[in-house]
From TrEMBL:
One of the record's GO molecular function terms: steroid binding
Localisation: Secreted
PROSITE patterns with a match to the protein in the record: SCGB (PS51311)
Family named by the database record: Belongs to the secretoglobin family.
Signal peptide positions (record): 1-22
InterPro entries: CH1-like (IPR006178), Secretoglobin (IPR016126), Secretoglobin_Domain_sf (IPR053723), Secretoglobin_sf (IPR035960)
UniProt keyword terms in alphabetical order: Secreted, Signal
Database matches in Gene3D superfamilies: 1.20.920.50
A GO term from the CC aspect: extracellular region
Transmembrane annotation, as ranges: none
Superkingdom to which the source organism belongs: Eukaryota
Protein name stated in the entry: Major allergen I polypeptide chain 1-like
Segments for region (Disordered): 74-93
């Protein structure tokens, strides 16, 4: 797996571990699903729901999503999703 995919998994795991367990899991799950498998516009629209006035955050989300789409193959994204499913199925979620 590429380092970028490792970073996605690590970031999601840290969010899930540090959060309020089930309350955060569904939000992270939706965010990561759009991040890995959605379009750039879908992901930026999702981020904008939480950062409506901050165009810098939205632009960074767009750049990050484009970078991930350019660097990760479909197989890399599927591997990241498979790894995250193990986290989502834990008793903490």
């Amino acid at each position: 797996m590429k380092p970028a995919a490792d970073l996605v998994l690590l970031g999601a795991a840290l969010l899930l571990i540090s959060g309020a367990y089930g309350d955060l899991c569904s939000t992270v799950k939706e965010d990561v699903a759009l991040f890995l498998h959605g379009s750039t516009d879908e992901y930026v629209a999702y981020v904008a729901r939480y950062n409506t006035d901050d165009t810098a955050v939205q632009e960074n989300a767009r750049l990050l999503k484009q970078c991930v789409d350019d660097k990760l193959s479909k197989e890399d994204k599927q591997n990241a999703s498979s790894g995250l499913e193990k986290i989502y199925s834990s008793r903490l979620c």
